[in-house]
Design brief:
The chain is built from 14 helices and eight strands. By secondary structure, it is α/β, with parallel strands linked by helices. Helix 1 crosses helix 8 and helix 4 packs parallel to helix 5. 45% of the residues are buried.
Length: 331
Amino acid sequence: MTREAILSYLTAPTADALFAEARRVRHATKGNGVFLRGLIELSSICDRNCLYCGMRHENPNVRRYAMQDDEIVACAALAAELNFGTVVLQAGECERLWTQARISQLIRRIKAETGQKITLSLGERSEADTAAWKAAGADRYLLRFETTDRSLFNRIHPGSPQTEEHPRIAQLKRMKAQGYEIGSGVMLGIPGQTLDSVVEDLLTFAELKLDMVGLGPYLKHPETPLGQSDQTSEVPVSADFTCRCYALTRLLLPNANIPSTTALSTLDPLNGRTLGLTSGANVFMPNLTPAFYREGYQIYPGKICVVAPQADSLDALKATFNELGLCQQQG
């Protein structure tokens, strides 16, 4: 697909034909199954100061927590009971807390005690760390590069290494070579973001041959520098635009797994799940983090699983699947 075609789809008055084609391709490549993957948010402690993130190190108002290893394994066991097949271990970036050895031990325990596949989402880590985790049994790694626009990436990630290649894209390539299934994604509507850069983001997904792509609207956090900025974006923060990007990703990467993200459901609590599925998504990640920790893990405010725990109800989720002729698939 050309740059011009992608830009045309992003700016067309309506996208019904695009969504219909995305559904057709998803059905041809993925069938009618939807993967459920249990999200476990290990910790809200972070050493980074990303300008958009409510958990940034310098935000004094975050309720910081760190789960114990036994609690994490118990969440993985719950995922197995629910027939999810995969758990996603996600945390704020803190190497002193989530050391190479500790994560390796967690991977081995989860594999031995629950049989779950494991996706890691622990931020920028060394080649030695990711190699050790792969050897311990990790299956996938999720690292969103957020934007291919290096000047914008560097601005919202202070202290990012000034390497010739985008540091997160370089890590994704290393991990693919190590044998991981790799996932990435972007935020849509970052102040200063352009439509041309989103086109480049989508083409980069295809170039990297990603196994999973997570896209979500940028949602302001009022206690962050970016949330307090008056700068605008060419890119709409809307469910429609986000879903157009889901659909285009499905056409560019027919076999990829595409989650309908929490941010989309937060932006549109009533229709977000249905919109994601009808525009090419085929994954949901119900939050299995214990309720008394969840409130502390807020990259943006109003996160749907915090303000509306019932949104994580499996019965409601499966009812949505049934309405759309879909069903839960394990993997």
